[in-house]
Design brief:
Layout (H helix, E strand, L loop, with lengths): L6 H12 L2 H74 L1
Length: 95
């Protein structure tokens, strides 16, 4: 009785029967090329993800810097206001 083959094995046997050796070589080369292309694609996707992450980090840093600057400006304005109020109060008490 013929034994059952895995899907891959039976496909290979059919290919061997259908193609002469030379064509099998080109088939192997084609699958190898396909694998290389898939690897390149994966690498590109990884690079893209890394770039996205870097961009997000950079954006967050910029946002934080902006917030810090705004807080500093606010503090300076508050200090100036206090000084002005003190000067005003001193001026009034002089009268």
């Amino acid at each position: 009785a013929p034994r059952l083959l895995h899907g891959n094995q039976s496909t290979q046997l059919i290919l061997q029967a259908a193609f002469p050796l030379q064509q099998q070589g080109t088939f192997a080369a084609a699958t190898q090329q396909q694998q290389q292309l898939q690897q390149q694609q994966q690498q590109l996707q990884q690079q893209h993800q890394q770039q996205q992450q870097q961009l997000q980090q950079h954006h967050q840093q910029q946002q934080q810097q902006l917030q810090q600057q705004q807080q500093q400006q606010l503090q300076q304005q508050q200090q100036q206001q206090q000084q002005l109020q003190q000067q005003l109060a001193a001026h009034r008490s002089d009268r």
